[in-house]
Write a structure and sequence with these properties.
By secondary structure, this protein is α/β, with parallel strands linked by helices. 37% of the residues lie in helices and 26% in strands. It binds adenosine-5'-diphosphate and magnesium ion.
Length: 255
């Protein structure tokens, strides 16, 4: 079943002075099936963050359409967007975005508190998730009392506790050391195997090699894509690295 569809998506930024324009997305088309794990790679400035912002409804496209399930994002009224986002999407960011004055538990509960859920329901959802993420013993701690990898696991719990249709991750391993990064990628792999759809922006071929498919964006367009097929991570990693080299050399024609 198709979960996400992006059709001819365009975003042109107009600078405040002088009417200069920057075309950040120049007709992006792709679809994501329910249960897929898709990585998006592209050089700095290629439009990755713009794409995630549009998918999250945090900014409006200049043209084109985005569907999540049967819902077209532009049909959602502005005053309903925050609630829609909370009900349907989970976010994991490079810099974790945890509130320092909240314990990890209260950070994880936040989206449910905002949706008006009761404590018992929140706690019932949290316990198995915390166990799976290995943070049960850390829940009463504050973000500044735990490591980067532990913060990121709490951020993943916060993203998953609402049981979102889609998890959006922007460079989720970007601030982690290699061991925490491997742990996070294992975790994403497990969560995806359990059925969660994930869309992850990353600079890292290693991170991307955990996904089932990699989209390469360049100059605001989907330029190329690779499917894992039956390949193990190490083989897929090799193919991704090779594609990145070819793209940097201009050796792959437009998809
Ligand atoms: P990436 O995340 O791949 O590095 P971005 O989506 O951040 O790329 O940026 C794509 C292009 O759009 C870049 O040329 C960037 O300078 C430009 N851009 C991004 N945000 C804005 C903005 N708010 N105003 C003007 N230009 C922007
Ligand atoms: Mg970016």
């Amino acid at each position: 079943m198709r979960l996400l569809e992006v059709a001819d998506l365009r975003k042109v930024y107009t600078t405040r002075f002088g009417g200069n324009t920057v075309t950040a997305l120049d007709g992006v088309d792709f679809a994501v099936e329910q249960g897929e794990y898709v990585a998006i790679m592209g050089e700095s400035g290629s439009g990755k963050t713009t794409l995630l912002n549009l998918l999250a409804g945090l900014d409006k496209p200049t043209g084109g359409r985005i569907f999540l399930g049967d819902t077209e994002l532009s049909a959602i009224k502005d005053r309903q967007l925050a609630a829609w986002r909370r009900e349907n999407l989970g976010f994991v960011f490079q810099d974790f975005n945890l509130l320092d004055t909240f314990s990890l538990k209260d950070n994880i509960f936040l989206p449910l508190v905002l949706s008006g859920r009761g404590y018992n329901e929140m706690n019932t959802r949290l316990q198995p998730l915390a166990k799976k993420l290995g943070i049960t013993e850390l829940l009463e701690k504050y973000p500044y009392e735990v490591s980067g990898g532990q913060k990121q696991r709490a951020a993943v719990a916060r993203a998953l506790i609402t049981e979102p249709q889609l998890v959006l991750a922007d460079e989720p391993t970007g601030a982690l050391d290699s061991r925490s990064s491997d742990e996070l990628l294992d975790l994403f792999g497990q969560v995806n195997k359990a059925g969660q759809t994930i869309l992850m922006v990353t600079h890292s071929a290693k991170a991307a090699s955990h996904a089932g498919r990699v989209l390469f964006i360049k100059d605001g367009r989907v330029f190329h894509q690779l499917y894992r097929g039956d390949a193990p991570d190490s083989v897929f990693f090799g193919r991704i690295s090779e594609a990145l080299t070819l793209i940097a050399q201009g050796g792959i024609a437009h998809a």
